[in-house]
Amino acid sequence: xxxxxxxxxxxxxxxxxxxxxxxxxxxxxxxxxxxxxxxxxxxxxxxxxxxxxxxxxxxxxxxxxxxxxxxxxxxxxxxxxxxxxxxxxxxxxxxxxxxxxxxxxxxxxxxxxxxxxxxxxxxxxxxxxxxxxxxxxxxxxxxxxxxxxxxxxxxxxxxxxxxxxxxxxxxxxxxxxxxxxxxxxxxxxxxxxxxxxxxxxxxxxxxxxxxxxxxxxxxxxxxxxx
Length: 226
Description:
Layout (H helix, E strand, L loop, with lengths): L1 E11 L2 E12 L5 E5 L6 H8 L7 E6 L2 E2 L5 H11 E5 L10 H11 L4 H14 L15 H13 L5 E5 L7 H18 L2 E6 L2 H6 L2 E6 L2 E7 L3
Parallel strand pairs: 3-8, 3-9, 6-7, 7-8
Antiparallel strand pairs: 1-2, 1-4, 4-5, 9-10
Helix pairs in contact: 3-4, 3-5, 4-5, 5-6
């Protein structure tokens, strides 16, 4: 991922509020990286730009040598579907679907054969510690278990990059640490790039690289582990 002098502004009435101020950043394949900072620092805005959910007002974003910042809406949708996985603080599960269905529908959208869908879904549910719970709906599972479903859903299509927006925000500290340990295991097993936005110190401590934002600018970029 190469982010080059990216600017993002929001208008509130006649006022222009800068969310990102000429941000430049490179992220290598397989990194386990946290974008951190206080509320309003621009971390979620940056995550949304990398995730092709939003578009910059200036600068460019390249992922795998593709200029995603220049793609139209349809191209961005296709790119997200094929290359990116998302984990949200509110889980964003479909309440009427079981754990199995919440994960497997991702492959259904990609027109994967039924036998392959079953094999991959059961495998990833086992890997995230939900074997035997595949027929439970979200309201019959704890917050930590629901976040495990969200991780399985993000991983099932084997994306190159997973973007996690405050993934521990609704979890107690012990459960949050379990979730971070699981994501680190998935990062090491599959070589998937994980990028978090957070203000949680525990998430920052788990990151191999910590990028700090303040008022829309990068103020530090620290590698903890190679």
